[in-house]
Amino acid sequence: MKWFSNMKISVKLISGFALIAFIAGAIGIFGVINIKKIDSLDTKLYVNMTEPLGQLVTMTDAYKSIRSRARDVLLSVNVAEISTHEVRINERSVEFDKAIEAFAKTIQTDEGQKLVATAKESKANYMKYMNSMISQAKANNMAGARASLTAAGNDATVLEEVLDALTTQKVEMAKKTADENTATANAASVTTYIVILIGMLISLVLGVIIARGISRPVQRLIEAADKLAVGDIDVNVETDSKDEIGNLMKAFGIMVENIRYQ
């Protein structure tokens, strides 16, 4: 540490403050990196888990609306009423298709992709029966319309089961992802606390070193001056420091030597 003691006092102080500022900046940057990391994980959770759950709700609601409208078709008394239900069925079918396409982009497992493929196939088959039912109903063939609706039952059951399975899978994955995000946030918090503690310790040690480097030689000069003030010339202020205080002590030592030989 001799090189440090030989530094000018101003250089010591400026270097100390600069190092403390660097430590504070490093801690701040580390904290920002962790915050951005957690923010990225939360965004991923929303995009891949939370938002798709909304799309599943849209699909389920659209499917149930189609089934409800299908029953209304069988109760319709004229073609105009059937056509109104047909328009609503087609609108909800489009909503379903858009939702499942958006949902498919968030699937991250092979099992999920298979479920989506099954859902698309079952829904397509279901809509074929719906179109057949509507055509039969418009032709006033209600027996044929009911037969088409009955035939759609198997695909309807499969579609319902797949939607339930997809919902369960997404909820489980969302919980798993949320738990992982919590663990990451906790680890980041602990690491940040450690970095802050290390920074505080380094700053404290640096402060003590600089303070002692200044206060100790000054205290020696004060003690020597006190002795000299009462006529005691048996004082020793030798130092090998080359900073301002070291130079002052050397000058004080020369003064003491001159007094001794007077």
List keywords for this structure.
7 helices; 262 residues; single chain; mainly alpha
Q: What would you note in describing this structure?
A:
The longest helix is centred in the last third of the chain and has 77 residues, at 153-229. Helix 2 (9-75) packs antiparallel against helix 3 (79-104) and helix 6 packs parallel to helix 7 (244-260). The protein has helices at residues 2-5, 9-75, 79-104, 110-138, 142-151, 153-229, 244-260. The protein is built from seven helices and no strands. The mean pLDDT is 85. It is mainly α. It is 88% helix and 0% strand.
What structural category characterises the helix and strand content? Answer: mainly alpha
Radius of gyration from the CA trace?
41 Å
Mean pLDDT: 85
The geometry reads as rod-shaped
Q: Report the end-to-end length measured between terminal Cα atoms.
A: 38 Å
Query: DSSP strand (E) fraction?
Result: under 5%
Helix content: over 70%
By oligomeric state, this entry counts as single chain
How would you characterize the largest beta sheet? none
